[in-house]
Design goal:
By secondary structure, this protein is of the alpha+beta class. The protein has one domain: Hotdog Thioesterase (Thiol Ester Dehydrase, Chain A), CATH 3.10.129. Helix content is about 15%, strand content about 40%. It is built from 2 helices and 9 strands. The strands form 2 sheets. It has a 5-stranded antiparallel beta sheet with strand order 1-5-6-7-4, with helices on one face. Strand 5 and strand 6 form a beta hairpin. About 25% of the residues are buried.
Length: about 150
């Protein structure tokens, strides 16, 4: 299941749930971002990188999430991140949420490689050293409904 994907586990916290102990939908986006940050670290990179004396960042240009079954307080979730696409200036990740093998949700993040100065973002090509780490990981068809 999800071979070739970056995998991390994360327990659902009480503060992430509603009165029925169900994880609130917005927290799936938080966990997608947490998984993405862990993925960047696994590559020896960070979401904030200094390159050629400029601060690079990855603001989101598109996100989505589909829900198939609820996650509950204290559930141990497996999160699988795959690289779906590496463009000249953006990268798209798919993140799948599973509990004991059951697919709970599937999301996508498209982030644009950008310079950041004074709180202003400007799109820029993905530097070669980052592209070299991402390109071999691209999996087409990731995050499609099974």
């Amino acid at each position: 299941m999800m071979s070739g994907a970056f995998r991390m586990t994360r327990r659902v916290q009480f503060a992430e749930t509603d009165a029925a102990a169900v994880m609130h939908f917005a927290n799936y986006y938080r966990l997608m971002e947490e998984t993405e940050h862990a993925f960047w670290r696994s590559l020896g990179l960070d979401v904030l990188t200094v390159y050629k004396n400029q601060q690079l960042s990855w603001p989101r240009v598109a996100t989505s999430c589909e829900y198939f079954a609820p996650a509950y307080f204290e559930d141990e979730l497996e999160l699988f991140l795959t690289v779906v696409r590496v463009g000249s200036r953006s990268v798209t990740f798919a993140v799948e949420f599973r509990r004991d093998g059951q697919r709970l949700a599937a999301g996508r993040i498209t982030a644009a490689c950008s310079t950041m100065a004074g709180g202003v973002f400007a799109s820029t090509p993905i530097p070669g050293f980052i592209r070299e780490k991402l390109a071999p990981l691209v999996r087409s068809g990731a995050n499609e409904v099974e």
